[in-house]
Structures are given as structure tokens and as C-alpha cells.
Amino acid sequence: MNDHIILGIDVGGTAIKGALIDVEKGEQVTERLRYPTPQPAGPEAMGKVVLQIVEEFKWQGKPIGCGFPAIVKKGVALSAANIDKSWIGTSVEDVFGRVTGCPVYAINDADAAGLGSVHFGDGKDVEGTIILITIGSGLGSALFYDGNLVPNTELGHLYLGGRIAEHYASVSTREAKNLSWKDWGKRFNKYLRHLDRLFSPDLFLLGGGGSNKFDEYADRLKIKIPVKPDRLFNRAGLIGAAYYARLQLQREGNEYTLDNLS
Ligand code: BGC
User: Is 15 exposed, middle or buried (0-12, 13-18, 19+ CB in 10 A)?
Assistant: First the structure.
């Protein structure tokens, strides 16, 4: 067998998800496990959930790609908007690596979704500037030019009308304010227009839980350039996280295949 399988983990402010991913095909090959993100969402409590996912997939000692909801540089979290502040300055790769015994490769969660989209989804072979926005507990962003990622853009933290954009137009805000998807869509439209003015992208792609509801708010989006939910929807994050691990393993000269698992 020549399948390339890696465990993708998508850590979010609300849930931690995991699935085995075929990183050649960009496909989920198992069901997706989903556990609530513990509160407070600190390293120890989150590590336990990641370990549980590893154990359920019997994945001890094998590589993991992890999308994480923070600025992530060289595996270290440098911000903490929707997770416990104790993550700031902490290595996601070391914490999850130690608890699971697996090599862990961590990347910002929206950047992971973007990689998924650009390699296996609607971002594939698109020239010019793409912005992918993940709609969840926060607003995540991934910026690509000709398929190349500019990491950690954090466009959910731009100011919009005096407020932080993700406080105005995330799924958590929609739920907290009891907004219909249509009313939320008007807010999201303002956000996309702001991004359009700043970056003049060629395409907006949407990921995260809110991308599944696109049909309910699409008519509120008055943007000249195309806006579409990536066909991978919220699977893009898991697929892209696993793909990122594969890229890092290849950089280390370590080709990972099912053949060398036994
Ligand atoms: C974080 C980002 C993350 C986004 C989506 C934001 O609050 O700052 O790093 O990508 O939420 O999870």
C-alpha cells in the first residue's frame, strides 16, 4: 500500500476535532472525532483531549499535523484570543508531543484550512490573491498569493467600525446576540468589503463551521469578486493540518507512508 496517512487535529475555541487524512488525496479516511474544548483551554487540559484522540486512532508515535487557533511560529503559540492566555510563549508542538509521544507539527488553524483549500479544494490552481476566512468561535484568515501562504495574518483582529472584527461577525457573536444567519450575513458583508478595500483579492473562500450555512446568508453578500464556501467546508482545517505535517516531514527528509508503520 502506498497511502500517506497522517492524523490531522483541528483545535478550535469550541471543539477539538481529529481524523486520519490521506495527504496524497487530501481526503479524510476515517470518521471525525469531535470533543468540546475544555475550559479553561490551557495546555494540560487540551493535551488530555489530544491524547484521547490519539488513543482512539491508536496513533501513538506517529505524526500529527495540528491547526491551532493562535499565531504560531516555529510551533510556539504567540497569541491567545479564544484559548487560555497561558498558551502565549508555549510550544504547541512540545506540549502535545510530550503528552502523546507523537511528532507534532503545528500551524495556525486558518492557515491550515488555507493549505487544505489551495492544495485540494477551491483554492487549487487559482492565480493571484486569495483570502480564506474561517468562520467559527473567532474569525481566522489565510492569505495566499499565487498559491504561496503569508502566514499568521490574523485578519479577524482588524478593527471594523471601532470593534475587533471577530467580536462583530463571528459565529460566537451570532449566537450570543441571537442573530439570524441573514442578519449575521449583513455584518459579514461589511467585513468582506473592508478586506476587499485593503487587499483587492481575486477570490474569497470560506471555511469553518459557518461556511456550511452559506446558502442562508449568501444573498446578503454584496461583493464584486467571487465569494464561495470552499468545497472542503470545515474539513479543510483537518486536511490542511495533516498536509502541513507532511510538508514538514518532507523538509526533514522523512517520507512517511503506511508501509513504514508496521
Ligand atoms: C485567532 C486566530 C485564529 C482564529 C480562528 C482568532 O481569534 O486569533 O489565530 O485563526 O481565531 O480560530
Answer: middle
Pairing label, strands 64-68, 104-108: parallel
Q: How far is the CA of 1 from the centre of ligand 1 (A)?
A: 37
CA dihedral 24, 26, 30, 35 (to 10 degrees): 130
For residue 86, report the phi and psi dihedrals to the nearest 5 degrees: -65, -10
Where does 122-231 sit in CATH, by number?
3.30.420.40
Mutational pocket test of ligand 1: of 71, 73, 82, the residue with most ligand atoms within 8 Å of the beta carbon: 82
CA of 253 to the centre of ligand 1 (A): 31
- What residue spans define the domains of the chain? 5-109+241-260, 122-231
CA–CA distances in Å: residue 159 to residues 127, 151, 168, 194: 28, 19, 10, 10
132 Cβ inside 6 Å of ligand 1:
no
> 108-141, pLDDT tens digit by residue?
999 999 999 999 999 999 999 999 999 999 999 9
pLDDT at position 256:
58
**Which residue minimizes the CA distance to atom 9 of ligand 1?**
70
Answer yes or no: pTM beyond 0.70.
yes
Of residues 39, 40, 35, the one with CA closest to residue 11: 35
DSSP per-residue string spanning 65-125: EEEESS-EETTEE---SSS-GGGTT-BHHHHHHHHH-S-EEEEEHHHHHHHHHHHHSTTTT
- The class (CATH top level) of 5-109+241-260 is alpha beta
Ligand 1 in contact with 69 (CB < 6 A)?
yes
